[in-house]
Amino acid sequence: MPITIFYLFFSQMMLFGLIRVYENQLYLYKLTENHYKAQTLLAYTDYWLQDRNKASTAENRIVPAFLSFEEGIVRCVADASGKVSATVTLQNAYSETLIVEILSPE
Known about the structure:
Blueprint: H1 2-52, E1 66-68, E2 72-78, E3 83-90, E4 95-101
């Protein structure tokens, strides 16, 4: 009888341990997927800002208030030094921020 109880307890511990490992793996997968989506949108925003402002001066830079994509929205805020803070918010409320410096033409 004690061996049966020990076996059931041990089996249950193993089962709950495996379930916990799979839960953590699924969480990590979702987090990685969100990170890659956000980084892709931020990289495109960086490209878009650099491309649109190739020949612009500090006075006539083009910085949109936001860029809308299927996966989420990127909000851009420019400061006087030429740096743009781009914050992406995905549809599932995941958010990341990138500081982009628009290079001046020389």
